UniProtKB/TrEMBL annotation:
Keyword line: Mitochondrion, Ribonucleoprotein, Ribosomal protein
Pfam families assigned: Ribosomal_L50 (PF10501)
Ranges annotated as spanning the membrane: none
Presence of the UniProt keyword Ribonucleoprotein in the record: yes
PANTHER family (UniProt xref): 39A RIBOSOMAL PROTEIN L50, MITOCHONDRIAL, LARGE RIBOSOMAL SUBUNIT PROTEIN ML50
Localization terms from the record: Mitochondrion
The name this protein goes by in its record: Large ribosomal subunit protein mL50
InterPro entries in the record: ACP-like_sf (IPR036736), Ribosomal_m50 (IPR018305)
Membership in a protein family: Belongs to the mitochondrion-specific ribosomal protein mL50 family.
Organism of derivation: Amblyomma tuberculatum
Top-rank lineage group of the source organism: Eukaryota
Length: 97
């Protein structure tokens, strides 16, 4: 299934950090990007806020890949073209010699 197109903003890391600080209720430490997210409730709260902030959904197939805060920053920093798998194959096929 194609995902909705998404173009990340320039300050993803800063926005995720602000959400992180708000959700945890404390200032982020210097290694906040390596913070493990093992608690389901924390993961839910962080991702829900990020989805609202960026207007970009996290597919259920990607939820298990979110293990630390850096994974959240990486996900919301990655652009999505919004093509279906068939369209991607079709484009690749026309680019062959």
């Amino acid at each position: 299934r194609p995902m909705k197109p998404y173009k990340p903003v320039d300050d993803v890391e800063d926005r995720v950090k602000a959400i992180y600080e708000d959700v945890l209720g404390q200032k982020a430490h210097s290694s906040w990007l390596q913070t493990p997210i093992t608690e389901s409730r924390l993961k839910f709260r962080l991702l829900t806020r990020c989805i609202k902030e960026f207007g970009h959904d996290v597919p259920s197939s990607q939820l298990m890949n979110v293990k630390c805060t850096d994974d959240i920053v990486e996900f919301f920093s990655t652009p999505v073209e919004g093509l279906s798998p068939y369209e991607i194959l079709s484009e690749k096929r026309t680019s062959y010699p």
